[in-house]
């Protein structure tokens, strides 16, 4: 009887213990940092609502470059211990005209650090406006394609492609998505994140 009761208690404790909630770190810039709106209105917060079984940490900072993200990443990896890192960086490198080789080097280091911590990695494609010239924009975009292949990681197509052409989804600066666009971005990102965490 005592053994049976003990087994029942152990089973009850086991069943009451929540399973490990996979942790997702979003390492991004203003596109991920809810620029121009309350943080709870941004797509990262919406993903947390849509996927309550996971734990999201928004490590995005407005104005962030890949170099800045690289500097901050070790501390974030230590504090969050993520199972998945979503890298959404490079836009500010492009807007400042930084060399694509610098962009590539920083992204590779970010991905390597994340992988070495045991996390899976998703890379979000970033594109720069066409007024930077076809040569620069092509080289910039190619960096993401090349890294995806070389590092064997999934490249998420740029979520702004279907938003930027629509003024009603953009803020007045013409660069950042507005609050109306956040649900669309969350819907775009969700299956990529779910796939990465369930494979």
TrEMBL record:
Q: Which stretch is the leader sequence?
A: 1-21
Keyword GTP-binding present in the record's keywords: the answer is no
According to the UniProt entry, the coiled-coil residues are none
Q: Which Gene3D superfamilies match?
A: SGNH hydrolase
Instruction: Cite a single Pfam family from the UniProt record.
Output: Lipase_GDSL_2
* Keywords, in A-Z order: Signal
For this protein, the record's InterPro entries field holds: Ester_Hydrolysis_Enzymes, SGNH_hydro, SGNH_hydro_sf
Could you tell me which residue ranges the SGNH hydrolase-type esterase domain spans? 26-182
Output the PANTHER family linked to this UniProt entry: THIOESTERASE 1/PROTEASE 1/LYSOPHOSPHOLIPASE L1, THIOESTERASE 1_PROTEASE 1_LYSOPHOSPHOLIPASE L1
Identify this protein by name. Arylesterase
- Please tell me the species this chain comes from: Shewanella scandinavica
